[in-house]
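Input/output pair, single chain:
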Amino acid sequence: MLEDTKAALLDLDKVTVFFRQLEDECLVANSPVCYQVEGSRQALRVTLFLDSCHFSELPSRLQNGGSLKLHTVLFTRALERPEGMSQQDYAAMEEIQQRTNAVSLEKVKAYYRRLRYSYTASQPSRGVPHQHSGSISPERESSARGVA
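Output:
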Protein backbone atom coordinates (compact mmCIF):
# COMPACT_ATOMS: atom_id res chain seq x y z
CA MET A 1 0.00 0.00 0.00
CA LEU A 2 2.80 2.43 0.90
CA GLU A 3 4.64 1.64 -2.34
CA ASP A 4 1.46 2.34 -4.36
CA THR A 5 1.04 5.69 -2.64
CA LYS A 6 4.67 6.59 -3.32
CA ALA A 7 4.22 5.73 -7.02
CA ALA A 8 1.09 7.89 -7.24
CA LEU A 9 2.89 10.82 -5.63
CA LEU A 10 5.78 10.46 -8.08
CA ASP A 11 3.22 10.85 -10.87
CA LEU A 12 1.82 13.98 -9.20
CA ASP A 13 5.33 15.49 -9.17
CA LYS A 14 5.04 15.63 -12.96
CA VAL A 15 1.89 17.77 -12.92
CA THR A 16 1.97 21.45 -13.85
CA VAL A 17 -1.12 23.61 -13.36
CA PHE A 18 -2.01 26.59 -15.55
CA PHE A 19 -4.93 29.01 -15.27
CA ARG A 20 -6.97 30.62 -18.00
CA GLN A 21 -9.96 32.89 -17.91
CA LEU A 22 -13.19 31.19 -18.88
CA GLU A 23 -14.43 32.72 -22.12
CA ASP A 24 -17.70 30.85 -22.57
CA GLU A 25 -19.80 28.63 -20.39
CA CYS A 26 -18.20 25.74 -18.62
CA LEU A 27 -17.32 22.81 -20.85
CA VAL A 28 -18.65 20.34 -18.29
CA ALA A 29 -22.37 20.78 -17.58
CA ASN A 30 -23.37 21.35 -13.95
CA SER A 31 -19.75 21.51 -12.82
CA PRO A 32 -18.26 24.53 -11.05
CA VAL A 33 -14.79 23.56 -12.24
CA CYS A 34 -13.75 23.53 -15.87
CA TYR A 35 -10.44 21.97 -16.74
CA GLN A 36 -8.40 20.47 -19.52
CA VAL A 37 -5.76 17.77 -19.08
CA GLU A 38 -2.99 17.16 -21.62
CA GLY A 39 0.07 14.95 -21.66
CA SER A 40 1.08 11.62 -20.20
CA ARG A 41 2.53 10.22 -16.99
CA GLN A 42 5.89 11.74 -17.93
CA ALA A 43 4.52 15.31 -18.04
CA LEU A 44 0.93 16.28 -17.31
CA ARG A 45 -0.46 19.74 -17.93
CA VAL A 46 -3.71 20.69 -16.18
CA THR A 47 -5.41 23.92 -17.25
CA LEU A 48 -8.08 25.26 -14.92
CA PHE A 49 -10.58 27.65 -16.47
CA LEU A 50 -11.84 30.25 -13.99
CA ASP A 51 -14.60 32.81 -14.30
CA SER A 52 -13.44 36.42 -14.50
CA CYS A 53 -14.17 37.08 -10.83
CA HIS A 54 -11.90 34.28 -9.60
CA PHE A 55 -9.31 34.70 -12.35
CA SER A 56 -8.81 38.36 -11.38
CA GLU A 57 -7.89 37.24 -7.84
CA LEU A 58 -4.87 35.30 -9.09
CA PRO A 59 -1.40 36.84 -8.91
CA SER A 60 -0.48 38.56 -12.18
CA ARG A 61 2.22 35.94 -12.80
CA LEU A 62 -0.46 33.25 -13.03
CA GLN A 63 -2.82 35.48 -15.02
CA ASN A 64 -0.03 36.00 -17.57
CA GLY A 65 0.55 32.31 -18.23
CA GLY A 66 2.70 31.34 -15.25
CA SER A 67 2.23 27.91 -13.77
CA LEU A 68 2.26 26.04 -10.49
CA LYS A 69 4.36 22.92 -10.14
CA LEU A 70 3.23 20.30 -7.67
CA HIS A 71 5.80 19.18 -5.11
CA THR A 72 4.65 16.11 -3.21
CA VAL A 73 5.98 14.58 -0.02
CA LEU A 74 4.86 11.62 2.02
CA PHE A 75 5.42 11.25 5.74
CA THR A 76 4.23 8.02 7.26
CA ARG A 77 4.15 6.28 10.59
CA ALA A 78 2.34 3.10 11.64
CA LEU A 79 0.43 3.50 14.85
CA GLU A 80 1.05 -0.03 16.08
CA ARG A 81 2.22 -3.41 14.87
CA PRO A 82 -0.55 -5.18 12.96
CA GLU A 83 -1.81 -8.32 14.63
CA GLY A 84 -0.10 -11.45 13.36
CA MET A 85 2.89 -9.61 11.88
CA SER A 86 6.26 -10.99 12.89
CA GLN A 87 8.80 -8.75 14.58
CA GLN A 88 11.11 -9.15 11.56
CA ASP A 89 8.41 -8.04 9.09
CA TYR A 90 7.49 -5.14 11.36
CA ALA A 91 11.14 -4.04 11.54
CA ALA A 92 11.38 -4.15 7.74
CA MET A 93 8.19 -2.09 7.47
CA GLU A 94 9.58 0.47 9.92
CA GLU A 95 12.80 0.68 7.88
CA ILE A 96 10.80 1.45 4.72
CA GLN A 97 8.87 4.12 6.62
CA GLN A 98 12.07 5.69 7.95
CA ARG A 99 13.60 5.82 4.45
CA THR A 100 10.38 7.29 3.04
CA ASN A 101 10.32 9.96 5.76
CA ALA A 102 14.02 10.77 5.26
CA VAL A 103 13.55 11.23 1.50
CA SER A 104 10.49 13.42 2.09
CA LEU A 105 12.28 15.53 4.66
CA GLU A 106 15.13 16.15 2.20
CA LYS A 107 12.60 17.14 -0.47
CA VAL A 108 11.00 19.65 1.93
CA LYS A 109 14.40 21.07 2.88
CA ALA A 110 15.45 21.39 -0.78
CA TYR A 111 12.16 23.12 -1.63
CA TYR A 112 12.63 25.52 1.29
CA ARG A 113 16.18 26.34 0.17
CA ARG A 114 14.99 27.07 -3.40
CA LEU A 115 12.06 29.13 -2.11
CA ARG A 116 14.25 31.08 0.28
CA TYR A 117 16.84 31.72 -2.44
CA SER A 118 14.24 32.91 -4.94
CA TYR A 119 12.65 35.13 -2.32
CA THR A 120 15.92 36.71 -1.20
CA ALA A 121 17.13 37.07 -4.80
CA SER A 122 13.96 38.98 -5.70
CA GLN A 123 14.24 41.39 -2.75
CA PRO A 124 16.17 44.64 -3.23
CA SER A 125 19.30 44.93 -1.13
CA ARG A 126 18.72 47.12 1.89
CA GLY A 127 22.38 47.60 2.72
CA VAL A 128 22.06 45.31 5.74
CA PRO A 129 25.16 43.20 6.28
CA HIS A 130 24.74 39.44 6.00
CA GLN A 131 24.04 37.86 9.37
CA HIS A 132 26.51 35.14 10.33
CA SER A 133 24.84 32.17 11.95
CA GLY A 134 28.00 30.84 13.64
CA SER A 135 29.36 31.83 17.00
CA ILE A 136 31.74 34.76 17.38
CA SER A 137 34.59 34.65 19.85
CA PRO A 138 34.44 37.28 22.64
CA GLU A 139 37.55 38.99 21.19
CA ARG A 140 35.99 39.34 17.72
CA GLU A 141 32.69 40.46 19.24
CA SER A 142 34.45 43.21 21.23
CA SER A 143 36.38 44.44 18.20
CA ALA A 144 33.24 44.37 16.08
CA ARG A 145 31.56 46.68 18.58
CA GLY A 146 34.62 48.96 18.74
CA VAL A 147 35.56 47.89 22.29
CA ALA A 148 39.26 47.41 22.96
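The longest strand covers residues 43-50. The helical segments are 2-12, 52-55, 60-63, 87-122, 138-145.
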